[in-house]
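Example 5.3 — Transmembrane protein 41B
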Amino acid sequence: MAKKRRERRETDGLSSSQEEVKADASDSEVLKEVQHTEGGSARMSLLILVSIFTCAASVMYLVYRNFPELPDDEMEKIKIPKDMDDAKALGTVLSKYKDTYYTQVLVAYFATYVFLQTFAIPGSIFLSILSGYLYPFPLALFLVCLCSGLGASFCYMLSYLVGRPVVYKYLSERAQKWSQQVEKHRDHLINYIIFLRITPFLPNWFINITSPVINVPLGVFFIGTFLGVAPPSFVAINAGTTLYKLTTAGEAVSWNSLAVLGVLAVLSILPVCFQKKLQKKLE
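Solution (predicted structure tokens):
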């Protein structure tokens, strides 16, 4: 009888071990399947993103080709500025033809700015400075804010469409921390977006890419961006009036400008602080 019990225990132990091995193997297969699915999703997202970028680049090429015919030495200067020298050269050419070909220059400026913002390509700061040289201040400020709002919103929609696998894979920890902050400011999200656009606490590309993943509404995102980029744009546009005195983009920002930006950032977040204190008193 005792012998049979021992044999039964050994058999049960063997069965349990086999089940554990099978369970481990099953979990491993599931993990491999999830990794394979995520990899396939990331590859598909990358393919879609490349296709959209190709289409956008084709539109930019058409804008470039439909620009008025210029001499070869001036046509060489029609390019996305990478430094202040490029911005000065571009400003020289555009200011020469701005009055004669007003619509073409405006459309080219608008399309280029939105394109850079949509795909987070560096260079928009030089276009902001350049707008102060080409256009009256109110028009320049509205144009920069509109281009920034639209470009950031297009970047938002791209991320919503194809960016989730990238965020989950490479930015999950940072996105989770920002998601917690967004939830704290959910009732006054526009003020919070404005505050982030004025201050350098989070890069603009990070805000654009992660916002749809953590459920920031597109309307709030656009309005917050449109209003939030106004103070930094004010500084850049104002510097554009003296474009030829600048040697680097950093010279566009003075200590007085930083002080003004700091004050505006505080003002943007003050309503939030007062609202929280009022809620605590009412509670």
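Remark. The chain has twelve helices and no strands.
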